[in-house]
Amino acid sequence: MGIKKMLALLIVLSFFYIGFSVFFKRDRFSYEVNYEVKNEGKIFKIKEILTYHEKEERDNYYLEIDTNGHLFTMHVFEVKKNAKYQIQDIAHYEGQEYYCIAPLLKGKNTPVEILCQRENITYSYHTIKGQNKDIDAFAASLNYEDSAYIDDKRDVLKKGTVSLYRKNIVKNHFLALESYKGIILVNESDIYKNIELFSSDIYTKNMSIFAKDIYISADYNQKYNFNEFFLINIKTGKKETLISHSALNLDGYAMGFVDDKAYFFDKQTQEQYFLDSKKKKMTKLGNKEKGIQIYENGVWIEKSSLEAYQNKLIFYEEKISEGFATFDRVDKVGTKKAGYYYLYKKDKDKYQVYRSPICNPTNYTYLFATTNIENIVYQGDFVYFIHGSEIQYYSDTTGVRTVLSNTEFKYNKSLKFGLFLS
User: Fold this and answer.
1) Are the beta carbons of 336 and 57 closer than 8 angstroms?
2) Which of 281, 195, 178 lies closest to 236 in space, CA to CA?
3) Which among 143, 192, 235, 291 has the fewest CB atoms less than 10 Å away?
4) The whole model's pTM is what?
5) Phi/psi at 377 (nearest 5 deg)?
6) Going from the N-terminus, what domains does the chain have, and what CATH number goes with each?
């Protein structure tokens, strides 16, 4: 064999070796283990699954704690290699209304969380604090620290109908909300920036959409037809104008956003367009003869333009319809081994919001309440939503906090908001 052929063979074998090494290490570090923790005569059966460096997955420990007819689940995203048996001890409380546990993780001095169950629903302690004096005493006996879950509204900046709560604005979170004449930008550095786009108040803007870091709106300075879209960067506030060669009617609606493209339907002509926010170009996609395209669960589906005219067809990244019949909205967020279902259930004048792991979809944990399930934004570990006149967010590390209140939310449910994480 010649030297060149030997070198080529060595290179190929090296690639195979590296590939097998990566696969072997990934497989070796991920594991599933079952064990027991005992405390005061109680036995807690633990299932611990580590997902580590797996393709398209997020590193995490998934933990199931089975005790006394109660099954608790939790994800832990602070991952260390070779650290099996994450739960070192479990304190517990048993009352007439709730059964609670407080897992102590390896390397921690206080419980990472206090979880309580009632009627097969899990509640984090911060969602029921102050409602049961015995559980409050249980938390105090463990020196459980819950100061991170305070919704701090002391530092307020008032601008017109909007009140901003400075201490609750998250770093590198760029929030934008529609106003009657344009858009309001809220972030940690600029706090508040009002950008006017229209000369008069516009109460409903169906031909507008938030697309990643861009807010896109039709030119509502026109009465019926328009040729211009306004594009606002919600991080910098920079405004651009895109001119469409085709005139669109304001009696249309935004359908959704996929791969840097915002999609619109003109009800008057029954035509579908997409606006490429990167190339700054408008393109006609569908009409009465060709039909239109709908994006649902990661695939494109053909529909008639008549159906889009008669019903407002909106794109869904993950539209869940099976297995959750009792809920009014279900969203699938994240990966198979680290993600969740978010479940919204009508309760009088609001919706109660629950979450379950994708890997255990019937194990529900209560999160928060919202009055609007049409405008929900998931970014990273945060969920932003409208409750009454407020824009709030939830995360496992903060609980529910309020970014701002806007009195106009009481009177106008069509006002939208968007979020970009830098």
Assistant:
1) yes
2) 195
3) 143
4) 0.91
5) -125, 125
6) 28-149 (no CATH), 156-421 (2.120.10)
